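Q: Given only this backbone (193 positions), what sequence would you predict?
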């Protein structure tokens, strides 16, 4: 349907972004990239187009190209919070945790409560044994995504790593009360045999 609309009017700017997203969903990065570049050329939300181009590069582990695309997106709109988070995630992938934290915090200042950013930030803190910071991030993420039981599992494991068995047990009970299938996956961590 999008392609037919474009055949009638090549100037339908909005269609380029939608078409790019559709191709990304179908995992056709080549066609998605073409559509996003057309959106840039049409100057229709170029920050969103560049962000999606960066995500395609990141998915293909082309880190330099991803970072360049994300930086270009920020030049178009420095207040686009998702781009800051994507930069942070990319820094995390290449092991530059200090820059990752800074970028994610920038995104969270612009748009507080993004669960993906909070979970990524919490994971970095956990890796560096900063348990209180990790718990704070995971707790905030859980408040903003209350149905995401995987966040509660992260919180449970962080509490265990910090030696806080009672707090971990409270998270387990929460999962159990919700009848989450994840409760069965972590029962051995709470009650080792």
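A: Predicted residues:
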């Amino acid at each position: 349907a999008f392609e037919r609309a474009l055949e009638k009017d090549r100037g339908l700017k909005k269609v380029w972004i939608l078409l790019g997203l559709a191709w990304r969903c179908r995992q056709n990065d080549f066609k998605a990239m073409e559509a996003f570049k057309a959106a840039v050329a049409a100057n229709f939300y170029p920050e969103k187009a560049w962000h999606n181009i960066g995500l395609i590069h990141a998915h293909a582990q082309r880190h330099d190209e991803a970072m360049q695309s994300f930086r270009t997106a920020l030049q178009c709109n420095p207040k686009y919070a998702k781009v800051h988070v994507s930069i942070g995630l990319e820094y995390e992938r290449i092991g530059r945790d200090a820059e990752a934290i800074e970028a994610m915090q920038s995104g969270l200042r612009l748009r507080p409560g993004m669960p993906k950013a909070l979970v990524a930030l919490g994971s970095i803190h956990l890796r560096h044994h900063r348990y209180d910071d990790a718990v704070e991030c995971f707790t905030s993420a859980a408040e903003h995504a209350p149905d995401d039981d995987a966040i509660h599992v992260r919180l449970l494991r962080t509490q265990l790593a910090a030696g806080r068995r009672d707090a971990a047990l409270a998270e387990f009970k929460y999962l159990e009360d919700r009848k989450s299938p994840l409760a069965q996956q972590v029962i051995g961590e709470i009650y080792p045999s």
